[in-house]
Amino acid sequence: MLFSRVYYGLTVLIASVSATPTIRRHVSSISPRTPPTPLPAADFSTAITASVPRTKAKRFLIQALRESQAAQAGSNFTTVVGGSDFDEEYLTNVTFGEQDFLLIVDTGSSDTWAPQIGFSCFDLSNNSVPQSQCAFGTSGFDINASSTFVTLPDTNFNIEYGDGEFLTGTVGFDTVTVGGMVVPNQELGIVTNAAWEGDGFDTGLMGLASPNLTSVFEGTDPGADEFPQTQIPYNPVFYSAVQQGVVSNPFFSVALDRGSFAAENSPDLDQNLGFIAFGGIAPVNITDTAITVPVQGYNAATFLPENASSVTYFYYTVDVESMSFTGNEKVFGTTNNIILDTGTTLDYVPTEVADAFAAAFDPPAMKDDDDGIYVVVCSATVPEFTVNIGGTTFTVDPADNLLPLGVTDDEGNDLCATGTFDGGPAEEGNIFILGDTFLHNVVVTFNIETDEVTLTQRAPYTNGGGGVGVQRRSPSSLRRRRL
Ligand SMILES: *[C@@H]1O[C@H](CO)[C@@H](O)[C@H](O)[C@H]1NC(C)=O
Ligand SMILES: *[C@@H]1O[C@H](CO)[C@@H](O)[C@H](O)[C@H]1NC(C)=O
Ligand SMILES: *[C@@H]1O[C@H](CO)[C@@H](O)[C@H](O)[C@H]1NC(C)=O
Ligand SMILES: *[C@@H]1O[C@H](CO)[C@@H](O)[C@H](O)[C@H]1NC(C)=O
Ligand SMILES: *[C@@H]1O[C@H](CO)[C@@H](O)[C@H](O)[C@H]1NC(C)=O
Ligand SMILES: *[C@@H]1O[C@H](CO)[C@@H](O)[C@H](O)[C@H]1NC(C)=O
Ligand SMILES: *[C@@H]1O[C@H](CO)[C@@H](O)[C@H](O)[C@H]1NC(C)=O
Q1: By the 8 A CB rule, do 313 and 282 touch?
Q2: What is the pTM of this model?
Q3: Where is the Peptidase A1 domain (predicted)?
Q4: Range of lowest pLDDT (141-150, 160-169, 261-270)
Q5: How far is the CA of 479 from the centre of ligand 3 (A)?
Q6: Does residue 483 sit within a domain?
Q7: 136 occurs within a structural domain
Q8: Which tens digits make up the pLDDT trace of 78-127?
Q9: Are residues 272 and 127 in the same domain?
Q10: How far is the CA of 336 from the centre of ligand 6 (A)?
Q11: Mean pLDDT over residues 247-273, rounded?
Q12: How far is CA 428 from its chain centroid?
């Protein structure tokens, strides 16, 4: 079900940048092209490693939010991703200049950043704490050691994510390399103050959402930032790659593998947990079940989804027609405010769907009111959850709806959380999330030129990772809402 698309060029973001003539803000002048069918192999791709997912969102937006074939063709710009932190966080290798970092892969935000060496660390209540408490994987980015780094003066970087982490700093440009894709002069957040709950592996994050969700502001005082009044939007990494002609197609693609049960129960780094591919589809086995749908735009003033001749894109939001599961007879209401977010572990679905789904486990999953998660014995029979998008039904492997909690009940049974979380009532302004629970089952290809996403059901696969020590975690270690 496609509605007519209007393409908005990323125009008029040129800021008066007072710096050397070599500094340019990379503002897209992309014009639409028809993508080839089937989707081609990527120019570049990279592997993903896993760690704990959080959903992050900016402080300002939170207020507004109310509180295959491809593989065989070979690919140049593809990189593996790996998992850390109980396989809840997906990481990939990214290079700034010549310095390598593992960054979280996040389709729910737009900025790419790393802490600068010597940064100050804070807890989420903004108390100063030792640097080690931020738990980055390295001591940070040394801008002085990068010959290609250029500072952007009179601006500041300021972001807050949905789980309460927040970061401020300066702004600069450097060459970003990921999966063999080299993007010169990419604008980056250089974090000097971090309230961050790291996993010991990541040294920042790579944001893949819209330019309008970026977090660079006028002036050097983060306290004076106003979204969107003083925001200076810029092109995130993949937008720059398209604008600079580095990739042959204007899409990137993500395939996130589920980890093994053991790896999901471990904070260790779990290599090879999928791929992110640039310029084509990620190299995993797929089925014929696929659909291309428009990204839902927003009214920038109200932050509500809107179909209008002029909309603003923030997240990769899609119109979900229905959600169901085996044994269910009820048709649940639809919502057009669901985002595809690699940075969130669980699916956040409307309360009535989450409650009914939990009740359909055998034995039923029980809601833990303290955490909002649904807890069930790991030996439960799990109904197959389905999501209908654009008239096509995608299935969620039951394995994705059992996340080991590392605790047992009184009878010694291992307890699991379901992968489906109560995201609140299906009412206007409430944003829901298809997170890693859903994304383990599809390849999502994000076309930034046509503002469309293509979802392709993956062929069933054996859970990745494994061979790692089992550790205990608490329900609260399930990361939430890194929008
Ligand atoms: C990979 O790069 C080579 C050399 O640049 C090029 O000839 C080839 O077509 C590329 N392959 C793909 C799948 O893009
Ligand atoms: C990142 O790079 C390191 C060093 O080259 C390599 O050992 C590791 O496997 C890479 N990890 C991922 C997720 O690509
Ligand atoms: C954190 O505290 C500093 C002062 O130490 C203040 O400047 C800053 O605005 C605070 N940040 C937040 C997000 O409250
Ligand atoms: C980078 O160099 C500048 C000027 O030499 C210096 O003031 C600054 O402390 C250095 N920064 C780091 C992180 O070493
Ligand atoms: C992909 O499919 C091929 C052919 O059926 C199979 O040999 C291969 O093992 C599959 N790869 C994965 C990762 O399942
Ligand atoms: C936009 O139009 C589509 C197709 O008619 C519809 O499914 C969707 O709910 C609409 N979105 C909004 C925000 O009205
Ligand atoms: C960004 O926001 C501005 C102002 O709302 C809008 O004119 C522009 O089209 C938006 N760009 C995108 C890519 O949504």
Answers
A1: no
A2: 0.81
A3: 90-456
A4: 261-270
A5: 24
A6: no
A7: yes
A8: 566 665 544 567 889 999 999 999 999 888 889 999 999 999 999 999 99
A9: yes
A10: 7
A11: 75
A12: 23
Residue 302 has pLDDT above 90, yes or no: no
The answer to whether 100 is a known catalytic residue is: no
Considering the domain architecture, whether residues 274 and 290 belong to the same structural domain is answered as no
Task: Please confirm, yes or no, whether 341 is among the known catalytic residues.
Answer: yes
> Which of 246, 261, 278 is at the close of a domain?
278
CB burial readout 191-214, b (16+ within 10 A) else e: bbbbbbbbbebbbbbbbbbbbbbb
Rounded Cα–Cα distance for residues 357 and 339 (Å): 20
Q: Which residues line ligand 2 (CB under 6 A)?
A: 47, 49, 80, 82, 92-93, 271
Question: With 0-12 CB in 10 A as exposed, 13-18 as middle and 19+ as buried, what is 73?
Answer: middle
Tally of structural domains, the chain: 2
Residue nearest to atom 12 of ligand 6 (CA): 306
Residue 168 tokens, joined = 């401020």
- Which of 43, 106, 400, 436 is labelled catalytic? 106
Mean per-residue pLDDT over the chain, rounded: 78
Tokens of 70: 């491809």
Determine which one of 199, 341, 397, 400 is catalytic: 341
| Domain match, 274 and 310 both | no
Pocket of ligand 7 contains residue 312 by CB under 6 Å: yes
Contact 192, 87 (CB under 8 A): no
The residue nearest atom 4 of ligand 6, judged by CA position, is 3
Q: Ligand 2, atom 11: nearest CA belongs to which residue?
A: 93
Q: Show which of 243, 278, 313 is a domain's final residue.
A: 278
